[in-house]
Amino acid sequence: MAELLKANILTDVTFYRRSRLLLAFTLVFLLITALQSLPPLFMNSGVQNFNSLQQIVSTLNFFILILTAGMGLLIISSHLRNRSLKMVFTKPCRPEIWLLSAFLSAGAISLFLNIVVLGTGVLLSALWHLPVRVGLIFISAETFVASLGLIAYLILLAMVMHPAVAAIVAIIFNADLFYQFDLWTKAAIRSGNSSFALRMVERLFHSLYILLPIVYPFDKQTQNIHTSLRVLSSEWKYLVFAFGYALALSAFSYCVSLFALRKRNHI
Amino acid sequence: MIFAEDVHVHFRTRFLRRKVRALNGLTLEVRDGDFFALVGQNGAGKSTAMYCFLGLLRPTSGKVEIMGQVPELGCGLYKDIAYLPEEPHYHLYLTVEEATRYYSSLSGKRVSDKAINESLERLGLAQFKTLPLAKCSKGMKQKVGIAQCLIHEPKVLFLDEPTRGLDPLIVREFRETLREIHQRGATIVMNSHVLSEIEMLANRVAIIDSGKVVVQDELQNLLTLNQELYRVIFDANGNGAVPEYLTAVERTGHLVRAFLPKAKLSDFMEAVRTSGLLLHECSLKKTSLEESFFNIIKGEAMLAENANSRSGVSIS
Question: What is the interface size between A and B, counted as CB pairs within 8 Å?
Fold first, then answer.
């Protein structure tokens, strides 16, 4: 099994390396980040440098999230659309292993990128004579954990729907949207309009908000870390909780994706 | 070895959701050590049958077994199975060498660099090792498929139109390789439209029409259906008249090709002796697989037509 996992992961990493879409996205994002980081180079204020560091780390972490989610989407949709899986499943390589390797390969890239971003944060801190804050480690770890959940969710979406629809669902019809809708309908009910239809809609939005995955389930609790780059000892538990959430989401997405993969005709 | 019983596969079309019967009660048996050919028109169900054997497609009903097991995606059964698909649906982002290595490594057995290099060398792919599959021609992709198929010396081979897009030299070499593998005891199931190729390789043939097996027999039985005719080729040597009992007479210059009824053989020999005709060939007419195939398919079509007209009468 280890041999099969290794073979699949290496092939998946080759796919990511050679995907022009991912490369173009990476270049555009790095260009934006580079342009963002230019002005502070000409300033000598410690506060300005700290703000820039915070901004750059935040931008790069957002980039990692988007990129790894895209990898999860692409690896599945590309193989399904190319119908190349018939070459894999007519060998003693079970769908479980192939799917797991797709998830692990995207996870490994995410881990690598998070380490690079952490290294960049540390390097910039040293360059700008800022103390290296533990918050950088926390944010990188949190981004990595969030990316795992997101990869698994996008793999699931790509498995059951067209990649374009999957991307729309992930970007627009996500938990945040339904949270906003839930708040609006609740406000409308509180303001006196308590019709049956509105109450049903409110319940629907609330259920969707609960059901759909959340990228940062403890963002309110960890907001201070992102702004101050400091971590209180009591705040590390949120990282563990987030990891538990990502693990549960990944396990659920994996099981449903596997079911969908097995149900498909690979011809 | 491979066993399919009353296999039905029904699809629904994408928009109108019309039912399409890809397989319609297919029953066949491939014995251990057979070189088995599936023959049929386009859309007859040959590839669908192969997908069912490989577990890539779940039959709507019926039973499929390979070596006593029901094939499932990626199960241990595939350690001894190799599959060459009809369409080159490969991992196009990999290079020729990477793809061969990847597919070989999925078999769960270690593959040495030497084995991969030898395999690529043999198929004339050594100089294209670093070329991505996306940039390879159809024939080259097919060669990669053949390389990954043969590297582990499988016990069962499924080949879907294996020589499509290959150059004649490689076709010949591939044919020899298949013969070798078959002689070593492997069972081979092959789909092909090239009936002459099947005649050269297969020992058993199933003719599939409208999703079911119409005939399943030894190739020799299909080739010698008609033994009542001799095929004769002779030089008329300026003599315009040929015996009237010869049929299907074809003339190319002085050369005459015709069929001779078995009962008239001695008369014809006498005519040759007396009139000084130069006889080039006189052999029992063997029905080619192509002729058998057309006769069988034509017969099936007529049966279906009759059945339809009978049911039409009963309805009215």
Answer: 98
